[in-house]
Each structure stands twice: as C-alpha cells, then as structure tokens.
Amino acid sequence: MSYKNFTIETDADGIALITWDMPEKSLNVIDLTVMDEIDTLIDQVAGDDAIKGAIIASGKAAFSGGADLTMMEGLLKDFHVKRRNDPEGAAKLLYEGSRKLTLIYRKLETCGKPFVAAVSGTCMGGGTELALACHARVADEGLKMGLPEVKVGLFPGAGGTQRVMRMTDGQQGMQFLLQGRTLRAPQAKQMKLVDDVTVSKKLVAAAKKMLKAGVDPVKEWDKKGYKLPNGKIYSPAGFQFWPAANAIYRRETHDNYPGARYLLHAVVEGLQLPMDLALQVESRYFAKVLQTPESVNMIRSLFVSMQELNKLARRPVDQRPNKIKKIGILGAGFMGAGIAYVSANAGIDVVLIDRDQESADKGKAHSDELISKAVKRGRASEEQKEKLLARIEPTADYEALGDCDLVIEAVFEDREIKKTVTEKAEAVMKSRAIFASNTSTLPITSLAQASKRPKNFIGIHFFSPVDKMMLVEVILGKRTSDRALALALDYIKAIKKTPIVVNDSRGFYTSRVVMTYIREGLMMLADGVPAAMIENAGKMAGMPVGPLSLGDEVALDLAWKIVSATRKDLGVKYVEGPLDNILEEMVVKRERFGRKNSKGFYDYKGKEKSLWPDLPEVTGQPKPADSFNIEELKQRLLVMQALETARIFEEKCLTDVREADVGSILGFGFAPYTGGTLSYIDMMGTANFVDLCKKFSRRWGPRFKPNKLLREMAKENESFYGKFPPKAEEKAKNAA
Fold first, then answer.
1. Which of 368, 390, 392, 391 shows the shortest CA–CA distance to 380?
2. Measured between alpha carbons, how far is 112 from 649 in angstroms, rounded to an integer?
3. Which tens digits make up the pLDDT trace of 506-561?
C-alpha cells in the first residue's frame, strides 16, 4: 500500500518504520490527507501479524509543526452555513469534525501494537499529541516540544489535556498547557513526556532498541486499578492545588480567553473520568471554544493572516526575488546593535557604523552578549557564535557601505542627524542599493527630501528589543518604488520577522496607536483616576502592561520629543492638553525620563519597580477608586486604540485589515483575545462601537468622536472584514 505523506518499511525483526515526509512542504503538518493516512497505517500495523511494533519518525529535520488550522476555518464556515437552518445538526457536525483526530489517536493508543515516536527537532500541537498517544517517545537533543494552541485561541483538542495531566507533575503540566510553553529535551524528559534523549543520528536506532526491549502496548490509564499521579481532584491534595490553579489562571488571563478557561474545565472534569469519557469531555469543550468569537478572531489573525503576511502577501508580484548578502547599519546604539544581531544571525554580513570606532565596537559587543547567552543556555554552539560575530564589521568609515544591498539608518529621532547620515551614506552607496530609515514617527516622505534617490528610500521600523519583537513596520514614502518595497520585504523574511506595509503619515500606524494608549492613561490621571487603577485596567483589558508602565518603557523624554516635534510641525493647528502638561512637568522640570534613567511614573531598582509616590504632585490628588467604573476604564483604553486604527484606515495609511490586526497584536500587544484592533470593532459590531464612542465623547471629550468611515459602516451594519476583505488573489497565491 502506498501513501502520499508516509512510507512504511518493516525490518527482519518485525519493526515497522513509518516515515512522515510530506511532499513539497518544508514542515510536516496535519491536514485531512495526513489524518486519513495515519488512520489507515494504524489498521495496517494492527492487522499484520508480521509487525511486532512501529516507529513513527520524520523524514525532515523537524517532526511536525502541528495541525493546519485552515482546516478549522473551513469546518467553522460549514458550521455557520448549516446553523442557519439546522442549529442542532450544525453543532453535531462541528463536534464530530473537530474530534476526528482525537479518535484516530485513541485508536492508535488502543490498537494492541506498541508505537514509539522518534521525535526530531520541532514538535508542536497535533504533532506533540501524536507523540503522546504513542506508547513511548525518544527525542533528539534539538527537541522543541509544545502545545501552543492557547496562543491562537484554542486548547490542545486531540487528547493533549488528558494525556499530559496523566503523565506529569500537576503544576508543571498546567503551566505547560495554559502558557503554551515550549520544552527543550531535558525539560520534556524530566516531565516524563519523553522517555529518552539521544543524538539525531541514533534516533531511529534508539527507538528500535526500545521496542526490542519491550514496550507495553497498553497505557497505564487503560489498566484496572489506575491511579492519577497527582491524586484525585476531590482530595486533600486536590483541594490545595486546583483552587490555586484557578487563581493563577485568572491572574494571568483575567478570564479573557475562552480557550484557556475551557482547557481548565476539560482537565478538571476529564481527570475524574475514564479516558474515553475524558476525551469526549475534551472534545465537547473544544467544539464550544471553536464557536467563540475570540477563538475565530485569534485563529484568523494569529495563524491564517500571520502566515499570509509571513509569505509576503503585500510583495509586488512583478518584482524579482532579492538575495540580500550585505547590509549597512548607521548607528550602533541599542536599536542599531539589535538590527545587526538579527541580520548576522540570518547569515547576512553587516557593516555597523557609528561616530567613532569605540562606539561601533560597543554595538558589536551587544551581539556578543546575546549569542553568548544563547550558547550558555545550549541554544547555540561556539562555532555558531564565531560565525555570527565574524559577519559584523564595526567601523566609523562610511566607505565600507560601498557594496551593501541595503543601508538602515537607526540614529536619534532628529531630522538634522538623519539628514547628515543619509547624505554621507548615499555618497558611497552603489546606485541600486536601498536606503531605509528606522524612524518610529517622522514621515518618510519628509526624510526622503535629504535623499538624491527618493525612489530607493523607504521606512523599516523595528521594535525594541529587536531580537525578541517579531513585527517590522514598512513605510512607503510618496516616491518609494516597488523595487524598494520588494527588497525590504525580502530582507524582513530573511531575518524571520513578520512585516506589515503602511503608507506615510506622522507616527505611521503602530507608534500613533501606542501613543493614544499612553495618552489615554495620562488623561485618566488628569481625570483623577488612581494610578494603580489605571495600570490594572490596562492589564485587565488584555494589554501586556498598563499605559503608565508602557510610557516609561517607551521613554517619557522620547514621548516629549514627539509631542514637541508634532507641535512644531503643526504650528497653530496643534491643540495642547493634559498630556503636554504632565509630560513637560515629568521630563523638563523633574527629569523623570522613564525606565532609561530609573525614574518615571515608576521608581526602578534593578528589575523591581513601584509607582512613584509623589505622582500626585504632578497630576493632582486622585479621587476614590469607587468613583470610577473599572469596565468603562478598560473599554476606554481599548476603544481609543481601535478608534485610532479606524481613523488610520480611513486615511489609507493602513490598507489591509490583516496588517491592522496582526500589527496591533505583535507591535504593541493589543488584547490578543480580540484578534486585533479591527477585529475588536467587528466583534462588538460597528453600530455598537459607534454608540460607545458617542457615549464616551459626550463624557470624556471629542477625542472619542467616531470618524466618517465608522459612522457610514454603522448605518449599513458593515464589518471591516466584510467591507475590506483581503484580496482573493493574495489568498490564493499564499495557499499555493
């Protein structure tokens, strides 16, 4: 029997080696064809007396990237179509469709023949659940094992919740599941999720040795008298553990994520039942989660849209691919040094320029520090470290830029400094090289006035810290060419970041919206809201940090510079407000710049921080906390960001709903459970959102006034994804 995605060979000892190697894919994923073939392979192994046991291994460097979530999208579309006329039938269809993989894995687990998973490299989601369903697991030293479903609005729905909690320590298991953690080989073995670890070359041999030594084809939980390793739910130990687990869940999620909420339900209820019934419970909760708008939005933004953007959905189709061999970076400060590191790590040669050799060397030292930490943690080798550092050439000599394909300016947010380095760089750059500014707010078209070749001038806005932040914002000036855009996107793909493309404006997209979040926090201070309440409202709304804390991280002196530059550029059109007064008092009069000088809205001592006790001297005495509605404060912070996004979309600075949503989550941490700023509006309904804006406008001021586009959409009951769907040809191209 032949298979599309697998091969099977049985040796003289009766051990079948099943090799998973999907054609024309760089990574094995679980789709409908894979599911059907695994099902058939189980029957083949179980029904052949000559086969004593089986090994499932990958023909690729990685074991599996998990399930293809576009399957879930299709299943949900069918569900919504059928629900209009047959709600009960639609629910049954969704339940049965979503648990198909669960039943296949359970069939493997109970087939009577032992299966060993030989897990190499990355093993995620449904791939991890396949390994857990096997009767034993051996992994290579490069293992990265995870169940990251909670990060895209779901939870492990193919037996993951039940098997993990029957195999490992309760606390570690819940952290692994609820946080979507990735385990390295030693951690996975310590947690008993893998049985042995070896080098890649000996992986299959180790699995065969394991089978020959004897692997029990019956799991412990399928034997009579089985006892849970962590004790019963309703027991003295359980009464200590589960209330605490629930408290931690609420502290970490603020109950915003249905996937995490029902994961906890599935675990607690499932552990009280035999495995087959437990898997039914898991499947029912999984189907319930699939129907929530949060799950739908998160799958769309954090899986489907992000995949499309990573495949360069916005790249001009008529441009030839670019191989970026060498780049130049102007400015070896924290940002420039970070760009140098990710570029060298991607195999690109880097010229790192600063005003003198000492400053340039200091910038390279940042890469040395980062890669040395990776080596110490076992995530890189000494050889990789040497190669990376050899790719970075620190210098003060602009002549070294002569053979660069791309030059990125990462100097201070000062027009004159940027003008000077642009002119010096262009004087030595080759004619077809592209020049990019890493500005966070200054319009690219105006910066391009310093260039003699504005068609080759583009904005590439990185986020700090560069090595950790996955988003890069590409900004098109009025004269930026398609070739410049294509090269910028090819570079971003090479360094494995996610790009969004926006048109030129002050603050572009991300910086402009981030400032509204910080500004709204300051406006709340001016309204008398206690600082701690503002910070908690931000985190309860789903933001990673409160607006005051983010202000400190961004740097209050930078915010003041942006306000001052905006005031200068707009002249008489600029309207001053509480934001200006608070920032001026903090920065100019009290020199509180934020985390950078250990004093801002918070006082900092190392990693510890506490709200500055003298803040009322700047903002006035706060009112009692019960004077304010916490739900309204949460909405103010989210509505303001979503409203500003809608304005940016109307101005055509943003032109793609996917980029708005993905950019908001990756760029400034907008409440991920919503799916992003525009999905937040769609989830609420445009008419309801406009009504809320009007209510806030009457109470809190004209900054909440809904823009024309939103008002028109509300009248017609339109959504952003309905009115502005991603281009069909782009979807088709990326599905290929």
1. 368
2. 58
3. 889 999 999 999 999 999 999 999 999 999 999 999 999 999 999 999 889 888 88
Cα separation of 18 and 6, whole Å? 7
Give the predicted TM-score (pTM) of the model. Answer: 0.91
Q: Distance between CA 597 and CA 605 in Å, rounded? A: 11
Q: Find tokens 């198909």 and name the residue.
A: 100
Q: Which residue has tokens 């510079």?
A: 561
Can you list the alpha helix ranges (DSSP code H) found in 584-707? 616-619, 630-650, 657-668, 677-684, 686-700
Amino acid 482 reads: D
The DSSP call for residue 441 is S
| 3-class secondary structure, 349 | strand
Q: How many CA atoms lie within 13 A of 106 on its CB side?
A: 20
Given a contact cutoff of 8 angstroms between Cβ atoms, the answer to whether 315 and 489 are in contact is yes
Beta bridge pairs of residue 351: 328, 393
Cα distance between residue 383 and residue 55, in whole Å: 33
Q: What is the DSSP letter of 577?
A: -
Q: What is the rounded CA–CA span in Å between residue 710 and residue 646?
A: 7
Q: Are 570 and 702 in contact (CB under 8 A)?
A: no
| Domain 326-506 = CATH 3.40.50.720 | yes
- Alpha carbon distance 52, 111 (integer Å): 12
Q: What is d(CA 677, CA 644) in angstroms, rounded to the nearest whole number?
A: 9
From residue 407, alpha-carbon distances to 296, 357, 446, 477 in Å are: 40, 19, 18, 16
DSSP 124-185: ETHHHHHHHHSSEEEEETT-EEE-GGGGGT---TTTHHHHHHHHS-HHHHHHHHHHT-EEEH
What's the distance, CA 721 to chain centroid? Answer: 21
Alpha-carbon Rg for the chain in angstroms: 28
Which residues have C-beta within 8 Å of that of residue 686, sequence separation ≥ 6? 710, 713, 714, 717, 718, 719, 720
Domain residue ranges of the chain, discontinuous segments joined by +? 6-291, 326-506
Nearest to 679 by CA among 730, 715, 708, 638: 638
Domain 6-291 identical in fold to domain 326-506: no
Question: Which positions ≥6 away from 468 have C-beta within 8 Å?
Answer: none
- One-letter amino acid identity for 307? Q
Tens digit of each residue's pLDDT (9 = 90 or more) over 108-159: 999 999 999 999 999 999 999 999 999 999 999 999 999 999 999 999 999 9
| CATH superfamily for domain 6-291 | 2-enoyl-CoA Hydratase; Chain A, domain 1 (3.90.226.10)
Residue 255 CA to residue 725 CA, distance in Å, equals 30
The torsion angles phi and psi of 57, rounded to 5 degrees, stand at: -130, 165
Q: Which residue matches tokens 């669960």?
A: 102
